Every structure is written in C-alpha cells, then in structure tokens.
Fold these 4 entries.
Entry 1:
Amino acid sequence: MDKVIILMAAWQGEKFLKEQIDSILAQDSIDLQLIVRDDASRDSTLEILYSYARRFPDKVVVYENKENIGATKNFLNLLCAAEAENKDKNIYYMFSDQDDFWHHDKVRKTLRRIKQMEKKYGKNTPLLVFTDSEVVDPNGVLLADSFCRQQHYNVKNRSFAHLLMENICQGCTMMWNMSLAEKIKIPKEGARYHDWWVALTAAAFGKISFLPQATMQYRQHENNVVGADCFGTYVQQRMKNRKEQKSALAATFRQAEAFKTCYKEELDQQKKQLLQKFCEIPKQGVFARRKTVVDCGFYKSGITRNIGLFLNL
C-alpha cells in the first residue's frame, strides 16, 4: 500500500487542533503518518499533540522547536527532515494546517489523481496535485463552496511564469510525489510561503494538476497566516494599503532571487531566461518593468489583480 506523510506545523492551535487531527486519522483506507512540529506554543497545543502520539504511536509523531521560527520555515524544515529520513521509499507528501477539517476521502481522491499523473508522466517526474476547498467560519458554517472561485484564481494557468508572480496552489490541499520532494531545496531566506515554494519547484521541473473538487473545509478566522477574505474585501484592503502591496511585491522578487540561487544551474534554458528576466524587473525603469511583465506573461489572476500589479510596479 502507498504511504502518505502529512506534515503539520503547529502553533497556538489548541482551539481547533483535535478536530483536525481526528479528521486526518479518519481518512479512508490509507497508510498515513502525521508528523507535527510545534513552534514553541504557549497554550495546550503540545499537550494535545502528545496525547495523540501516545494513543497512535504508529500514526502520529511530534517534534518541538525550542524557539518560534514561523510557519514557512517550520513547514519547509519538516519537509526536508521527512524527505531525508524516507529516501528510496515510495512516499507521497501533504501539508496540513492545524485548524481545518478534512473530508474523509481527501487523501484517497488526491492520491488517485497523482497516481494517474505518474502513469502518464512517470514516477521520476516531479508531480504536484492541488484541490479546491470549502471556506467555513470558526464554527464550521459554510461561507463559500469553492475557495478558488471565491479568490478568482486562474487555476488553469499553472505555468512557471505565473507561479513566479502568484501562487494559486493552496498548501493545505496539496500532495506531491517523492520525485518532487527530492527536488526541493530549502533556502536560508527568501521563501515567502512554504506552499508557494513547493509549487514553484513543481512548475519549474515537473507537472501540476488541479482537482476541481473541494476535499476539505478551510477555516477562516482571525489567526490565519493567509486568510480567505471575500474578493471584494481583498480588493478594498489592497487599494487602501499601497505600501503593504509594494512590500509584498518586493518579497515576491526576493523569493525569485532565492529560487535562482538554489536552482539556476538545473533549470532548462527557457525557464532560466524567464527567471532571470523576472529577477531583473525591480532594477528596470517604470515602463520597462511593465513591458517585461507583458512580454513574459508574469501575470496574476484576473483583471483586478493585474491592475493592482501594474499600479505597484
């Protein structure tokens, strides 16, 4: 039976953690292991985690960070350690947030899609699948039946050029194969989000597939690292805070520089040129920056986001 390793970065998660772990352990007929690293929580998160590890020693493994390092580094360090420990095994990986709720067939459906991809492209090809999700409030009340539609994401454009500018792959819905796990390098600095970094690596070296089904409930509350506000609220917030948007765009270019440092010698010529042009955008004049975006297809999803992009370039 195929094995799936689920990686969870936990921090101050006592409110919803039990419900999420229960939903993971209730997955249909799947050999899975949940590996959790707590990021120096001060609430009862660790107590909850160790209670599950004692009850399910073959299913739940818990580690602790001595100091808080943030979600992105925590997730990427988890992935690096898990991949190193499971070399030469046929493992599939997933990320999990601590506060969602997985449908009972989430892992099975996603695994089925990625195995279809392996049949088509071969197991040696780095492959990633992401799915849709439902958006719920803290009490589990449905807010939107499709995260992707709510956010107006162009999930059909999974190109390297698009992924350089915008991440469309929701990390808590993703699964990837061993070939992609082996390809991922962890930068010291520069990765904006763990899921974006993994998706960008998949776009650079392999294939990405979207499964247009909601496989989980994404819980929207005040403590989300990246929220799922309705699109209208998203637009209003972005229009009010240009400084924040320019800062986010600068972080996106820093991520590309980090990606170039890690992978510049391994990319094919076309992607190497795309990455180089993307990294040069901040050094160009105002008109040249916009021309490069148009010429290379460094777009975001939809007209509204791209208007904002061009205003902030």
Entry 2:
Amino acid sequence: MQVPDFSTDHDTGTPSGTRAVPVHRYQGGKPATAPEADWLAQEIPLALEYNGISHATVLATPCDLEDLALGFSLTEGIIRSAADIRDVEIIESAQGYVAQLTIASYCVAELKRRRRTLAGRSGCGLCGLESLDDVVRPLPPVAGPRHPISPAAVVRALRDLRQRQPLHQQTGATHAAAWADLSGTIQHVREDIGRHNALDKLIGALLPRRGAQKPSEGFAVISSRASFEMVQKVAAVGIPAVAAVSAPTHYAVQTAQQLGVLLIGFARNGDFTVYAHAGHLGT
C-alpha cells in the first residue's frame, strides 16, 4: 500500500502536522480490516536561536511554529513583550526546523547572563533548568477580568473546544489551548503534541504584534491537566483565568492563588470545580 507523504492535504482538509502510516487493525486477536492508512501527529525538533545564539530545542507538532517561538520566548522570560521581537524566521532542515529570532540587545544580554541548555520534551516543561531559581519566575499578580466571567461562558468555551481540534480529531494524540472572550466564544485555538507547546502557541498568537485581542479580556481553556507551569504561562501574558479539562496540581493552585488567576479544573459536560479566585467568576 502506498501511503501519501505530506503534512497538509488542502484538497481533503487534512490538518497540517500529520503523516499517514500503514496499519493492520485487529479485533479480538483477529485481523479486522485490510491494511489501511492511519493518520498520526508529527513530532519534530524545533531549535530556537536568538541573535545567532542557540538556546533551546523542543519537540513539537510542525504547525504554527512562529506562534510557538513567540510564546515560548515570552513565557520563558527571554523577551518582555512583543516589542522586543525584531524578526522571526522559521527555517526547515533535514533534522527539523530552526526558529531564528532577532531580539532587542538588552534581552540578549539577559539571555547570556542566565543562559542554559534546554533539551525539550513534549511532556515536560522544565527539562534542563539549571537551578530551582529558574523554575518560578517573579511575576506580578494578574489584574482580574474587566467583567466577571460567567459560568455559562466557561461551559460554552469548553463545549466548543472539542470541535475546534482538527489535529486531535484526526490523530487522537494532541492537546489544545484556546482563548475565549468573556462571552465564552472561542477566538483562537492552537494544537500540539505537548500541552506546554499548545499554550505557548496560543500565547504567541495573542501577542499584540499579531493584531489579536487583549489577552486580559478573555480566558484560556486547555484540554490537559493544569500544572503550575500552565498557570505561570497564562499569568505571564496577563490572562486572568484558565479552565482545564483535567485536574490541577496542588502547586498549580498555590501559583494561581499567588498570581491572581481564576483556576478551574475538571471542566467537562457542563460541570467544573473552582480552585482559586472564585471571585473572578460571576453568577
């Protein structure tokens, strides 16, 4: 059987970031079908370079890579705002992709001061950190939402999230992070094999240079658990609330309490649990 070798099928609508492989399906220990193609999510290395300095390599799904580079740069504290970005270029190579970013000189000086080697993995957001001081960033508390977020808006956003995940529908292997306005209407969604990457992609898409809405005027919904890094990332960009389909960790709750973030967990089928800053939630 010949399997197509492409990452985007514009005729069939197959989402980018996938590859087809031949499979043999079995049921009850017996062949169930003839050999057929199955679509899998891609996982490729993305190296990040700042003003020619190699800094990190992450494994990611090869779509929205510029958003990932921008979001990673902000949530890692490499840049302070979109204004620090001078240029971004994504280059494909035989081994994967390279994101070449040109950033402000004072950001480069800070990067050199705390330079570290990060061997990124799809399931881990802390690999390669040199010290415990690098784990928690000193962030100011997030201002509360301009208007309370209604429970109905949270339910609406989580209900619609599943339908806005073409990669997951095709492969069953990716996480999603979305930003919804205060009415619960999803405005942006990004997917990746890694939950941290998906959120970084979303944050990159929300940076002011992208012409998006203000992050503070809505909330994030994620298809994964809520670890402390996920809370820290939304706080870094000023998102006042995050709702997770799965459970939060205790550290995530502590972080949300300290940073003023409304933290919601187990948000599914119209139900959810509030773990921090319930006052941000309306009636």
Entry 3:
Amino acid sequence: MKSWFHNSAAKSAALELRDVPEPRLQAGELLVRVRAAALNRGEFLARRSLPATTPDKPAGIECAGEVMRLGAGVEGYAPGERVMGRASMAFSEYAVMRVGEAIRMPQRLTWEAAAGASITYLVAYDMLWPGGALQAGEWLLINGASSGVGVAALQLGKLLGARVIGTSGSAEKLQRLQALGLDFGLACRNQGFEKQVLEITGGRGVDLVVNNVGGSVFAECLRVLAYRGRLATVGHLDGVGSAELDLLAQHAKRLHLFGVSNKLRSAGELAECVAGFKRDVLPTIADGRVRPVIDRTYPFAELPLALAYMEASGHVGKIVITL
C-alpha cells in the first residue's frame, strides 16, 4: 500500500511516499480503508524537535474510512462500517485504529468533515468538559483561535453557553470566526491582549484560557484569569516551551493550571475520553449544531502541498487530504 512517512534524516521536516505492506492487526484493533485524513500541526512540530537519527515513522494521526478487518477480541464493529478517529498511519491507504478510540461516523458527515471532527474536537472536549469545567455564562479566552483546536474550542464553548474571546494575528480570520459565534476578536500576534481582555470582562478576567500559542503568552494568560480561573496549555506554536510562573497569583486566585496532551495516556484513559466525547459532543455533530470547519482539501498525493499551506498559516479550521 502507499503510505507517507516522516523522513527524519532530511535537513528539514520532510515527507516521503513509500510502498509498504498492509499493517498487521494486534488484538483490539481495526484496519480502516482511509477515505480522508486531517493534518495536525503538533505532529509535525514534534517530529522536527527530534534528532536526525530518530527512526522514520508513518505519518498521520486521524482519519475517516471504512472498517476492513477486525483484530482479535474486537466486538461491536463489522466490515464496511464507517468510522472516524485517532489512528496510526492515517496518511496511508490503510490505517489502524484501536477499538476504544474508533467513533462511528454520523450519517450526515462527509469523509472530509469526519476526518476533521476527531482529534481537535476531542482535545477541545477534554479542555472544556473534564479539564476546564466550563459553565454557561463564563468567559473563555482562546489564544490562536483560528487553528483547528481553536475553532473546535470556540464552537464547543458556544455550545456550552460561554462568552468567547479569541486572539489571532489576522483581523480577516477573526472576522470569519464571528460567523461561528466569536463574541470578541483581538487582532494581536501572540502577546498584547491583557488590557483588552480585562476591559471586555469589566476587570474580572476570564474563567478559562486555552493557550494554543505557548510559553510566550503564558504569563499574560495567568494575569487575565479570574478568581478560580483555569489555564489549559495545549499548543506551542511559538516554539517556546518554558515560562515563568507567578506563584503568588496562582496562590491568591486559586488558579488551576493543566496540560492537554495524550503522549503519556494509557489506552484506557484515551478510551474514557472518547466515550465522554461520544456522549456529550458527537450528538451535536450528528444533528448539525456543531459543524466541523474544513478550510481546504488536497488529493492524497499532494500531502506536501497541504503541509506547506498549513505552515503558511493562512487557514481557519482543518486541512484534509482525500483518497
């Protein structure tokens, strides 16, 4: 089968299309015929931070497609069913999903929308429901609001009844996000939002911050949090992986700081998150209340062009390849 790989030996992060055998299933896995797969910036940022001696790895971490075969012990799925979700080898003709992370596609979704409705919406669910405990009427600030995770957090924040402030370096992107319910858009690249956020909230601050930018805005994110505010660190688009922590502010305002990553999670923890997503969010995608935002699609063979478009940062929402 055809499969895109991260070529770690290249001087810059590179993708290489290879012919490889179909993956062998382990117990509890599904083999999926990929119809569409979505790009995630975090995957490529992670590969670039690794040494050139790192073994090459199949690319792609989320897709939508048809179940082809079942691994040992899999129950409740059958060949031909349409599924979406986190997967290994997603930028391939065939990918592998763990049964606990597979999600049956809502009937109304296209392959492209289903591919873009998985990881970012799962991450947003993780931040806003169990992590951030966001409530109706609370204030939500999203740094980097036009990214895939940012758009999903905006949509799910509005679903919960929150008032949402978003930042972006592009006023045009912020205008596009107003159609999704963005209450206030702040045109600033990374830093410089504190004064406006406090003015908007009457000096109170926000209840939850989604930090999709990284260390360069961490201190400012703390300063705009209200009493008992929560700060979710989910991305490092600025490449800054460390920041100073104002312990006095954390102590006085009883702040809750948490990271959003699946790197160390067990299969059971991931399955638990997916189960919550199916319960609380999937019905709203199925009935159209939440519509995955797909900025642009590319053919499978043009994945490097799709990556270049993502790195140019002109998109709002998800970029998808189709097979």
Entry 4:
Amino acid sequence: MSELREGAWWIDCGGVNAYLVDDGGTLTLIDAGLPWNRKTIQQAVSDAAGSLADIDRVLLTHYDIDHVGTLAKLDGLDAPVYVGRDDYPFVTGERSPPWRNHKGAVQRAVGWLTDPPTGPVEPVDDGDELGSFTAHHAPGHTPGHTVYVSEALSTAILGDLVRENEGAFVPSPYFISYDTTAVRSSIRSLAEDLPTFEVAAPGHGVPFKRNGSERFADCARELD
C-alpha cells in the first residue's frame, strides 16, 4: 500500500488496483480486487485506518471479477456499495452479462467465482455526488463504467477506462472492452469536461501523483 496524497492510498493487489480514501471523515473503499486479494485489502485497511468495519462506503468503477472479487469475502465489511446503473444488475446478480458481447461472455463465464455483496447495493447515475466525489458515466469498458472525481481531494479514480503503460495512459483495449468506440468517446468527453486533478488513479498500472489531468488529456489527444 502506498499513500498518493494525505488521506488517499493505493492498494496494489498485484495486477489490479484498489483505493482507500478518507473523504472528509468518511472512509471509502474504491474497487475490491480479485477473490484471492482478500488478505491484501484487509491488511491495507488495517494499516491505514483501522478495520473493515470502519469503512463507510464502497464505490465500484465497474463490474469485473478483478474489481468486485472480494466484496462478499471481506469479513466485517458492512457498508453500502455504489456502482453505475448499467452494471448494477451484474453486481447484485439480478442479471448476467450478455453472451453475445465478447467481453460479456467472459464476464459470464467467470461469474461463478464471485458472489453478490451481502449488504445494500445502490445504482449510480451520471452526476451523482457521493461525499466529495462526483460520478461520471464513462461507458465502453463496461456499460455502466463510472469514473469518480473529487475536486476537494484533487483525485480522479479512472477505473479501466484507461490503464497506465510505460508512464502514459492508454485506452481500454478491444479484448477487455464491450465497445472501444464508446471507450474513446468517453475519454474525449471527460478530458474536456473534468475539473483539473493531480492524482490520476487507474484500475491497472501505476497511479500518477501529480499532473493527472494533463496525463489524461495527453491520452485523449493521442486518439486523434
């Protein structure tokens, strides 16, 4: 676990990232790793802030096994989970991802490895405010993929819309995305609309502690 700025931590789960944020006294876990990352996340929360029972809120950038995997396995976690509306039924188990989409078929095939959260799950819409974070619908990687940005913390949680590769952001590629045209559209739109932020925290790769919005804008320019 590494501190990105005061009150914000990167939990490196080995190939995938989770984040822990003290959002004005509200302890927020963002994404939850793979099913076998339970001990990593538990230890990180313990080191930074106490116990899993101290977590007040869980934000999910999207439904994927490597972002929801530990939710039903974190003993003591008793906090509402928030996820983009179009991914909501996948997280709750009310509906399975579609076989007809190549990414959906993979999600469906590995879905048996995870269980729905035991606590409440709430759908999130574009523009919703969750503490200091604003939700920005950014579809493409998944239908309900959501980016969370806190101006107060100067932090953007980017999920899998982009990933860090050799010191730069690159778009989510075809083989793990529902729709790469939508991915590119989301990147372009957010690069224009998001406020300036220092910390840029992707779901995969190394987060940037400084000049995050500039790094994200560089990725958008590379799409042209």
